[in-house]
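User: Can you fold this complex?
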Amino acid sequence: MRNSRVKVNGLFFVLISVFFYSGLSAEEPLIPNPEDTTKICIPRPPTNVLATDAVYDKGNVVNLNWVPSPDDNGDGKILQYQILRRLENDSVFALIDSVIAGTAFYKDETVESGQTYQYMVVAICDGGSGPSEPSPPVTPDMEWLNFALSNIFVIGLLICGSVIYFIGKAKSGRPLFIRKIAGLEAVDEAIGRATEMGRPILYVPGIQDMDDVQTIAGLTILGRVARVVADYDTKIKVPVSRSLVMTASRETLKAAYMAAGRPDAFNENMAQYITDEQFGYVAAVDGMIIRERPATTFFLGAFFAESLILAETGNSIGAIQIGGTANPAQLPFFVAACDFTLIGEELFAASAYLSGEPRQLGSLKGQDVGKALAMIAIVLGAITTTIGQAWNFEFISAIADLLNSLFRTN
Amino acid sequence: MEQQIGLWVGAFLTMGIISFLYKDNPWYKLTEAIFVGISAGYWFVALFWDNIVGKFWIGVFDRGDYYLLVGAVLGLLMLMRLAPKIGWISRWPLSFVVGAISGFYLLNYFSSNVMLQVQSTIMPLFSPQFNDPLFTSSAGNIISNLFIAGGTFTGLVYFFFSKEHKGAFGGAAKIGIWVIMITFGASFGYTVMSRMSLLIGRMYFIFGEWLNLIG
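Assistant: Here's the predicted assembly.
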């Protein structure tokens, strides 16, 4: 039985061998003919390899262009192009990347500013390669000015110019109108309530450091609140979660007490550092709210997940609460749990409104010029884009394109 | 064994924090003090190794980045407040930080919060498709585009401080605050759901990992 199976397998092997041998001998020689170029792939190389320094970058990008190999005609012969690079003084090119056939551009984002590079592009096919001539040397560099963003400069200049103009106007004593901000009208009332009840005021300037504009806005309002607190001789507590904010808060409080003519009432412990840890800070402030039962709480600054925990705890003891942040995800919680909320830019407008200080008022008015520009652009842009696209009016489309390019950011 | 101790300490502290829902109590106070103390100590050590050793010491003495000395001098000036007579010097580094950061972020905020917002709102009200006849736009598409452009415009009207909210301007501002509140409502629901997942995580820790009541 075993012998018969060996015989059958042996016969099968012989038949298969004969079949394949006969097939190969008819179609493809076992030893290729050196003159038959269809069998040995040597592609013609890419030409005109040109490396240029990318404009308006940090000096870390080189753009590489080339004319593809004449053999790269979509028939699949060219598999890819290999990108080789060397520093000008090096003798050897090193492979840095590869791109698919049909490509004639490569963006090298791994270069260092000030170094000089040369590139070579190699066309690769199955079993062979065609290297190009080395490109002329290129030295990537950073540009000092990005003229592609000159539109931002122009609009920025317009708004900053308006700010300077209105600051000058405010300084000259001419009155500048600012509409009432509901949350701020309640500040004096809230401080008065704490005074009447003989209970402290809790002021939280957010949980971010001094590198956040919301913290700066929160501390500016603290200055005004502290001034009234000093006048009324009410207690104020400012727990903070950053050491720099503690220093800035103490300076703000000190300046406010000095301005109120009560430097003796100032105490450094009014502003206390708790911890940088977000929820450790929240646990401590929650405990403070429950134990000291402030009559008024201010949450003005940058807040995150702790916003509702703090505001809800303050709400549970019946404190008058004024919240404000520019963080859109946290505003709903302040709206739900606080008596008054400063929404987004109202937080920044608040300090100008409260202080009446010419520089801040002028700045607020200047920003309003920016908002007016934005409103005009939105209305005009939406109308011209709609008409231009629906009825193909070239002139109207040109206006829409102009508006679009005026506000582009790249 | 160590894992078991960690599990029990974690459960004890979690329950301590949750006990605040009933009322302020010694258990919560103990947990709060541990949390604040450990985290403050942790951040002190982390910032020391990250900033003073990792950035300043290695930067200056290993890499030769001497410009970091400017930061070190500003940091030292902050300590001047410990000496009452020259304490006023500590305001300089603070002014530097506030001024430099405000300037640094001005461009970022301006391009992302102003320019990009306006550019994204300049859109066709009836059809987002190029050369698409007016009549073929779907009702949903028209409403969506009108809502984006109109909502942004009226929202800006609400935040315009130089004019009293009266008459047509006041009406637009009212629509603006409605749009803002609808957005807040959606955001509220979304965030509450994400907080629920945090609560579920803690409950899983107590009933699953600690008490082994759920698999």
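Chain B touches chain A through 71 residues (CB under 8 Å). The helical segments of chain B are 2-18, 26-62, 68-78, 91-121, 139-158, 167-210.
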